[in-house]
Specification:
- With 237 residues, this protein is of the alpha+beta class.
- The protein has one domain: Inosine monophosphate cyclohydrolase-like (Glutamine Phosphoribosylpyrophosphate, subunit 1, domain 1).
- Helices cover 15% and strands 41% of the residues.
- The strands form 3 sheets. It has a 6-stranded antiparallel beta sheet, covered by helices on one side. A 5-stranded antiparallel beta sheet has the order 5-6-7-8-9. The protein has a two-stranded antiparallel sheet with strand order 3-4.
- The model has no long low-confidence stretch (mean pLDDT 97).
Length: 237
């Protein structure tokens, strides 16, 4: 699979929607993840990321303007032991509880499907990073409608063992802007991952469409120790 520039992928797509990146830093020392959200409506744009425990939560920037919290207020990131869970919806909690009760990442997500936001039927994208004893592996998932038909949910899981230094995978909800919004297709994209968290944060944020970007979360987890460094950027301040 061709190595792509994440920056170019974002610059050439005005509306990828929500996106998850997981990979390994170029020096091999860090497990890396990033999650961003975008919005076209006032309700979607009226959000910020805030820290909650070891994870984050979306909140309304102006509570008075919040219309429907059902699909926009959730915990995108939660941590359970050696697992960091990253998703674009409340399936974060589904994965968290499933793993806590002995299920796998894939088994937990079999209880969920795409979002009920006809006619878009936004895919649910999810990722999990497992860092333990100096080893790092990760998985990505997408739950999507069958070519916009809600009668069938397509479930795909991609597992990555022994993550290679300097590269990762990128998955997002939409192929681009449209009406209805076209769902992501194919395998997660292979992209390069730098060593420095601030460089990566700036590259992603500055490449997202200025009108549509809302918030960004980036985390670098030291594979040897399990300690982590986090960056959060909110357009609303």
């Amino acid at each position: 699979m061709e190595m792509l520039s994440l920056m170019k992928e974002l610059e050439n797509n005005a509306y990828p929607g929500r996106g998850i990146v997981i990979g390994r830093s170029a020096d091999g020392k860090s497990a890396v993840t990033a999650y961003f959200i975008m919005g076209r409506s006032e309700n979607s744009r009226n959000r910020i990321f805030t820290e909650e425990g070891e994870g984050i939560r979306t909140e309304a920037f102006d509570p008075a303007k919040l219309v429907d919290p059902s699909l926009i207020i959730y915990a995108p990131v939660r941590v359970l032991g050696n697992d960091t869970i990253v998703t674009n919806g409340d399936q974060t909690d589904t994965v968290y509880e499933g793993i806590k009760n002995g299920q796998t990442f894939e088994q937990a997500l079999r209880t969920r499907e795409f979002e009920p936001d006809a006619p878009n039927y936004t895919p649910r994208i999810s990722g999990i990073l497992h860092v333990e004893n100096g080893l790092f592996r990760y998985s990505l998932s997408i739950l999507k409608s069958d070519c916009g038909r809600p009668e069938q949910c397509l479930r795909y899981t991609f597992d990555y063992d022994n993550a290679a230094a300097g590269e990762g995978r990128f998955i997002h909800t939409y192929q681009g802007d449209g009406s209805p919004l076209p769902s992501f297709e194919g395998e997660p994209k292979r992209i390069s991952v730098p060593d420095d968290i601030d460089t990566f944060t700036d590259q992603i944020w500055n490449s997202l469409n200025e009108d549509n970007k809302v918030s960004l979360f980036v985390r670098y987890i030291d594979i040897a120790s399990g300690t982590y460094t986090t960056r959060i950027v909110n357009k609303n301040r």
